[in-house]
Amino acid sequence: MSDVGRALVIVGAVIAVVGIVLMLAGRVPWIGRLPGDIYIRRGNWSFYFPLATSLLLSVVLTLMFWLIGRR
């Protein structure tokens, strides 16, 4: 039963960290504006796809989960 408790505490801590990062992400000006993000504006229509931001976030999360999984 202590393993389930430990897992719940870890999941809760990860959710809290992700929440803090999302709160602070609006204050970091380069998030979502990386050179590789696709932004197309034509008249009154615009399309935005954060390709480079998604790749960077994927690498960071992969490394984070790999480090947690090694324990």
Residue fraction in strands: 5-15%
Described by strand count, sense and barrel closure, the largest sheet is: 2 strands, antiparallel
The helix-strand sequence is HEEH
How many H/I helical runs? Answer: 2
How many extended strands?
A: 2
Count structural domains. 2
How far apart are the first and last residues' alpha carbons, in Å? 19 Å
Enumerate the strands of the largest sheet in spatial order, edge to edge or round the barrel.
1-2
Q: Stretches where pLDDT falls below 50 for ≥5 residues?
A: none
Task: Please state the CA-atom Rg, rounded to the nearest Å.
Answer: 17 Å
In short:
The protein is an alpha+beta fold and 71 residues long. 61% of the residues lie in helices and 14% in strands. The longest helix has 24 residues, at 2-25.
